[in-house]
Amino acid sequence: MITFKNLINNHPFVRLKEIYDVAISSDQRSIEAMALSTLDQINLEVNSRYVNAKFIDGDKIIFFSNYESVKAKDINSNNLVSCLFYWDSIKVQIRIKGIITMCDPYFSDDYFKNRDQKKNALAISSNQSKKIESYEDVIKKYNYILNKDRNFLESRPIYWGGYMIEPKYIEFWNGHDSRLNKREVMTLDNNIWLSHCLEP
Predict the structure, then answer these.
(1) Which of 47, 45, 4 is closest to 24 using CA atoms?
(2) I need a surface site. Which of 9, 25, 29, 117 has the fewest CB within 10 A?
(3) Percentage helix, strand, coil for the chain under 3-state DSSP, each rounded to 5
(4) 101: nearest Cα among 158, 59, 47, 62
């Protein structure tokens, strides 16, 4: 699930929330799954993966991740990202391009403290994307951290926290069996959202 708050009048996220509610009522599974694409500026490689969008707050999408991961290194070298929701229950795709930055550490602290401790144990124990001898070692590290005391499990490690994406481009795509797909685009121009349609 995604938590929406502080939505801004005439912002595309108001429309996104309306579509989200329809998808929820249509029993959309994994509705928070968001494909995120980043650019490795050094090797000129594009990397894509799914992350869980947790909040849409005002004009930003927020998710959480390891700050030492591949995606973090990509973001540090290039703060332009693309992300995508696809909700097959209603045949809607939402494409977003924008600028990504780290969340305020106090915001990340508060979120981490109130999160499920099993999830926190994984965040603490994982050196995300680093090589390891075996999957069994992953399990051992996780269980070792999980057995730590509550205060430890509620203390956010400095290598984990939130990211927020401020969109500059949003496309709402409605799929049809006829392939006469409806595509509506909103772009930010001098702090004003402009809209137009695209051919299928």
Answers:
(1) 4
(2) 9
(3) 30, 40, 35
(4) 62
Domain boundaries, the chain: 3-114+159-198
d(CA 70, CA 57): 25
| Calpha distance 21→19 (Å, rounded) | 5
Does residue 130 carry a pLDDT above 90? no
What span, in angstroms and rounded, lies between the C-alpha atoms of 107 and 55? 12
Query: What is the chain's mean pLDDT, rounded?
Result: 95
Quote the tokens at residue 152: 């430890």
Give CATH superfamily name and number for 3-114+159-198: Electron Transport, Fmn-binding Protein; Chain A (2.30.110.10)
CA–CA distance, 110 with 148 (Å, rounded to integer): 19
Q: Which whole number is the average pLDDT over 93-120?
A: 96
Average pLDDT over every residue of 173-181:
92
Residue 131 pLDDT greater than 90, yes or no: no
Indicate the helix (H) or strand (E) that contains 105. helix 105-113
With a cut of 90, say whether residue 67 has pLDDT above it.
yes
By three-state DSSP, how is residue 96 classified? Answer: strand
Helix-helix angle 135-146:117-125, to 10 degrees: 130
Burial class (CB in 10 A: 0-12, 13-18, 19+), 58: middle
